[in-house]
Amino acid sequence: MILPGAKTAVMLVNLGTPDSPTPRDVRRYLREFLSDKRVVNLHAFIWRGILEGFVLPFRSRKSAEKYRAIWLEEGSPLAVYTQSQARGVAERLSERLDQPVRVEAAMRYGSPAVRPMLETLRAEGVSRVLVVPLYPQYSVPTVASIIDEVARYALRSVHQLEYSLVHSYPALPGYIEALALRAEEAWELHGRPDFAAGDKMLLSFHGIPVSLDRAGDPYRGQCEETATALRERLDLTEEQCLITYQSKFGPMPWLTPATIDTVARLGSQGVKRIDVACPGFASDCLETLEEIDLLNKGTYLAAQPDGKFVRHQCLNDHPTWLDALTDLVESRISL
Question: Does residue 112 have a cis bond before it (omega within 30 degrees)?
Fold first, then answer.
């Protein structure tokens, strides 16, 4: 979103996505992602052999099949929605501010990458950059990795930019309201769950290793903060609205309860309806469209064939979410 004369830029940063759902592009993306020590904290020499010899040859092809199942005509859902978020924030800022502010989407892994984006901004006259991770809850593998990448660019720069970064916003009122509206939209379409009869809603967050949690990563506490605020807004109890964690990778212990274990258990216990929302994902992506809507749904229905499984759409370009994101950005660039 190039604006002539803009000295301030906002960079909305998401995790990333392959350029296409082909094994070659997925392999390139996974190599970058899984080579980050913030993501897999093993000795580089040992992990490199495992990654190149075992993980990438098998996971790239299987992941490519999954990406093909959810790919949009315009491209990767995560890339499409992230770009849409950047446009929405840019439009709102142009209406609110009397100074031009650029808003760009970037990816921690894949393209458009963080460091080239920063160099482009600097070369085109920007002197001040606000980095906004599209992760409402802070964690080492997500927000800390973005900070690392910005720092790597800064270390190699002679002409430094002025940086600021949004750390986290797990209970931002507009964010919670947007999540609640997504739930209410799903209930308007599919009917409200009968919580009195035992129906359940799951808040499925991306998991992290237990070792990170024990080391002081604030992620679990911030997920609980989001869940508490959303339950209050929807007037639900902890028993009706459960926290679960998804997307486990590797043999080490991760935060529990796992989403897929929970849907299997609830199905086998006779729960007739499960709603699943993914508050930690700002955009629908492989983890929501394939892992939740296909894998977890199939697991639940295998245990409860007469059951109903409803996945709530992620925030994507919901107007209330874009308003909240713009409010957050405006409060930071106005300091």
Answer: yes
Q: How many residues does the chain have?
A: 335
CATH number of the domain bearing residue 103: 3.40.50.1400
Beta strands 8-17; 128-133: pairing state? parallel
CA within 13 Å, CB half, 27: 13
Candidate from 43-47, 127-131, 221-225 with smallest mean pLDDT:
43-47
Convert 298-312 to b/e letters by CB count within 10 Å (16 or more is b): ebbbebbeebbbbbb
The H-assigned helical ranges of the chain are 23-34, 44-50, 56-70, 77-96, 114-123, 145-155, 173-190, 210-215, 219-234, 259-268, 297-303, 319-333
- Across the strands, what pairs with 101? 8
- Both 14 and 163 in one domain: the answer is yes
**Same structural domain for residues 27 and 164?**
yes
pLDDT digits (tens, 9 = 90+) for 151-180: 999 999 888 899 999 999 999 999 999 999
In a shared domain, residues 24 and 118: yes
Q: Can you read off the two tokens belonging to residue 283?
A: 């955009």
Q: For residue 2, give the amino acid letter.
A: I
Name the residue range of residue 56's domain.
8-169+319-333
Sequence-distant (6+) residues with CB within 8 A of 57 are none
Radius of gyration over every alpha carbon of the chain, rounded to an integer in angstroms:
20
The encoded tokens of residue 169 equal 């916003």
What SS3 state is found at 280? coil
**Residue 317: pLDDT above 90?**
yes
| pTM, to two decimals | 0.95
Task: Check whether the bond before 57 is cis (ω within 30° of 0).
Answer: no
Distance between CA atoms of residues 325 and 85, nearest Å: 9
Residues contacting 16, CB < 8 A, separation 6+: 29, 32, 33, 78, 107, 108, 109, 110
